[in-house]
Amino acid sequence: MMPKPKKIIILGHSGFIGSHLKCLISKSENWSIAGHSLPDVDLTNPEHASRLIPLFTADSILVLAAAVKRQFGDTLEAFLHNMAIVENICHLLETHPVKRVIFMSSSAVYGEETESTCINEQTPVNPTSYYGINKYTAECLLKKACATKQQTSLVCLRPPLVYGPNDQSRTYGPSGFSTAALEGTPITLWGDGTELREFIYIEDLCRLIEFLADHEFEGKLNVVSGTSYCFADVIAILKEKLPSLEVNTRPRSKQKADNAFDSRKIKSLLPADFQFTSLEDGLVRILNQN
User: Fold this and answer.
1) What is the CATH number of the domain that holds 31?
2) Which residues touch 288 (CB under 8 Å, ≥6 apart)?
């Protein structure tokens, strides 16, 4: 007899991360999916959020990926919108605990202009944007809510810039540059584009979420491969594939800052055969799927 599928709730299942996660999970017989996002449920509205109560059971896994992304405006309004979502979910968790919560936080909690080439989970947080402040505040609130009845484990994932096919946010980086390249639109590069960053391919993130949904790990985790790239690397790969790509440069508006991550913690958890997608392979997949 096949074991009964485990229940996973994906909040924000129509967004970039949520939709890719739903696609991955739906291919497995191990999971039964329940997903809700606007306009089905407005999570900023307490009355709407309460409609989720029947889904919040002691054996369910909750993936919280619902949020207004930074690329749509790093504003106080967006901050308050995202805080309302987290506050309403915390209220539900205090009265209707689930087995596990996986929260999509961000490496923005360390500070967007922080110069550090060895960021790990013990690096002090120093968010400098509304988005980063929201993510760290949400982590703290969820930790408190999950501890109320001591029935819910919490994982806070802190990925850097996530990229991949069907990313509608047109971010400054792999997704946005690829979209511009496919449209024949010039790319504007700030400075020489040599600041170090990590770029995580969306399918790698989703595979990790599925893995951790049924794992004993709790706490904060940087979703990183340990391999750093720069924006100029993205341009170089795209120009190799699309030689006619036009690139303009503009002086930096902020001082150059390198960010690189220590990946030892995440690699100690992952199976030996888990491989992160290289930047070149990820960009090729975007170009081939659009």
Assistant:
1) 3.40.50.720
2) none
